[in-house]
Design a protein that fits this description.
mainly alpha; single chain; Rna Polymerase Sigma Factor, Chain: A
Amino acid sequence: MTRLCEGQHNALTELVRRYQHDVFRFCLHYLKEFDTAREMAQETFIRVYTARQRFDTSRQFRPWLLCIARNLCLNELKRKKTVSMETLEEYATSARDEAGEILRFPGDGPDELLMADERREMLGRVLETLGVEARELITLRFFQKMSAREIADVTGSTEGAVRTRICRILAALRDKHSACRDEL
């Protein structure tokens, strides 16, 4: 990004190459439509280019990039008047091979696979009980594997607020769904 800010326009090509898949999956998470997600991912890189002079090179690039993508997706959702998050099963499709099978460790037997499917279904039902904002925080933290600092940058919050909110969400889930955990 520093090279792009210095006027090396081929640096944008490198940024697109490095981050295009992450941005697309991120947009697909919000929009659930392949073509719309692709358009928002492309628009994200256009916005990166046009806002290159406003980028603070002392900060990390990825959270800034995902913040742009998130804002574009949220604007698109507002425009369409649909604010819904993907189900866990839809999210898991990004971890499937060409045959559609979920990628697992080679030693998984039929009973482990069945238990994993049951856990995934139960987790999906539990996540569906969350509000949109809570589900977004949990998705960013545990599925996108982002740190609290990165989430704060993406959502426009503070790191402490993100940590507190995630802790409260997890505690509420533990209290509300402790019976589900005992079943599996």
